[in-house]
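Why do we care about 3D structure at all? Because function follows from shape, and shape follows, mostly, from sequence. That is the central idea of this module. The next example makes it concrete: a single protein chain, its amino acid sequence, and then its structure expressed as tokens.
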Amino acid sequence: TFLALKAQSLSLIFDLQDIDDETESERSKVIVMLKHYCCMINNNNNNNFLDSIADKMKREVVSKGTQLWKFGDNTTSARLLLSGSISLSNDDNIIWIKPEESSFIGLRGLILGEKHVSTAYCEEDCVFYVLEKGVYEFLSDT
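And the structure:
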């Protein structure tokens, strides 16, 4: 599928920093989530591929109340929500969705080069694993 092919490209561009015990546990969760998003669960050879993606992802802790982006902003990253709570609202500030943990937010805008169609706030402290736009573009060109 298209998503699976794009996921193969992602293995070259992530950058995970400073692995400790807590981060290693998070990394295991990220791999499970990547299996879901990459549609590659049934092939054992993909475990190395998923490990390499998880090893290169950037971990980011964001405080409660932080605005991640606003409606109409350019998409600069996609974020895998590992823990915490966020809300997405439309341009009238009406909350229309609260993504669950393990949701990838901003992925469509990143892949398709679209602007954000929502405003995103952290409702509590959040942990994300982030794919930056520049890194994704590098992968797309290779």
